[in-house]
Specification:
By secondary structure, this protein is mostly helical. The chain has five helices and no strands. Helix 2 packs across helix 3. It is globular. It starts with a helix and ends in an 11-residue tail after the last helix. It comes from Congzhengia minquanensis. It holds the Pfam family HTH_3. This is Helix-turn-helix transcriptional regulator.
Length: 72
């Protein structure tokens, strides 16, 4: 359930709608809503698109690290 909560939290922190995030991730808004409700788990491709949209690391998005940015 961490991922569902994180997706919702990030979207709200960035003041975005579900429709905006869904469009960037190239998924239907209902599909994106199912991610936030914890009904489905996004594919790796979708998670990467969302992490890139928020300019955060994928590990941070999914709760694997407290480091927000990718070391480059």
């Amino acid at each position: 359930m961490y991922l569902a909560n994180a997706l919702k939290r990030f979207r709200k922190d960035f003041n975005l709608t579900q429709k905006e995030v869904a469009a960037h991730a190239n998924v239907d808004v209902r599909t994106y809503q199912s991610y936030e409700y914890g009904k489905f788990i996004p594919t790796a491709t979708v998670l990467i698109a969302i992490a890139e949209y928020y300019d955060i690391s994928l590990d941070y998005l999914v709760g694997r690290t407290e480091q927000t940015r990718v070391n480059r």
